[in-house]
Amino acid sequence: MLGAIGALAIGSAFATTGVQLPAASAATGDPVIAAAGDIACPPGASSTATKCRQALTGDVLTSINPQVVLPLGDTQYDSATRTEYAGSYDHTAWGASFKGVSRPVPGNHEYRTSGASGYYGYFGSKAGSSSKGYYSFDISGPNNSFKWHLIALNSECTVVSGGCGTGSPQEKWLKSDLAAHPGVCTLAYWHRPRFSSSHSSPSSTTFIPFWTDLYNSGADLVLNGHAHSYERFLPQTPSGKADSAKGLREIIVGTGGEDFQPMGTVVANSSKRQNTSFGVLKLTLHADSYNWQFVPAKGYSFTDSGSATCHHGGSGSK
User: Which of 100, 170, 273, 304 is a plausible cystine mate for 294, CB 3.0–4.6 Å?
Assistant: First the structure.
């Protein structure tokens, strides 16, 4: 695994952390990040072909060797206690090898422990303030040749102070953070999806304010978990209309290992979906574009890949 990520405070107004690639990695090319949610079963749970494959998805992380890992919530079942993390998540590469470069967001299972204290205690400052759970940071290209802005949001709207609606502290922070980082490729991620074809975790209008601010600012990509499946959407408006010029692309990666959930009625603009393969999303970030690749765990076969241009550098998919 690559060396530790250096942190540089950008501005206390937005609690933003600048993430620089380790110097030794600059010659290897543009930065690579990996993401998945819904990861580790409780300690001692039996592994089967359809459940508790967190060790195998951890092996995928090792094969990718990303500079940054984005755990997309529900990182540790069932209640994300420190004991559960120590007995399961830490026994995989997710915790043992990549905890130091992880920048997580909380899910509903984290808050089954009061105040998500197990989660915040486990990840520490990497998870942002325990009273908020939202934060942002930059990832730089080789030799600081470019940067991407990443925004971690808290989708547990019933417990985060003020909720997630328009005018809430989190939404106002998001709008200000976006205004402070114009003209760069931007990725946002949180646990519960805005759009989803999952029967168990369907689309939610709760996150329209997030989507609206991101859309209006020219952000590019949204990652979610919660639905225990993989689903990639065409770029969309906040209301779910296809928009190849300005729309945000959402990718759900709830395939971290816990289990699968059934698909329901396919919603508009769902381009690719599956609930049969555990795996991890690999993203390679370039100055004006990005590549995505779903990397399946050993023994699973689904794949998905493609590339797209950032809104500030062009539009549409390659």
Answer: 304
- Report the amino acid identity of residue 65: N
User: Are 74 and 191 within 8 A, CB to CB?
Assistant: yes
Ranges of residues in the chain whose predicted pLDDT is under 70: 1-28, 313-318
Tens of pLDDT, residue by residue over 72-100, are 999 999 999 999 999 999 999 999 999 99
CB-based contact 99:70 (threshold 8 Å): no
Break the chain into its structural domains and give their ranges. 19-309
Q: How far apart are CA 33 and CA 284, in angstroms?
A: 7
**221: nearest Cα among 175, 181, 187, 178:** 187
Q: What CATH fold (topology level) applies to the domain 19-309?
A: Purple Acid Phosphatase; chain A, domain 2 (3.60.21)
Q: In which order are the strands placed within the sheet that holds 6-11?
A: 6-11, 16-20, 135-140, 147-152, 185-189, 221-224, 249-253, 230-233, 270-274
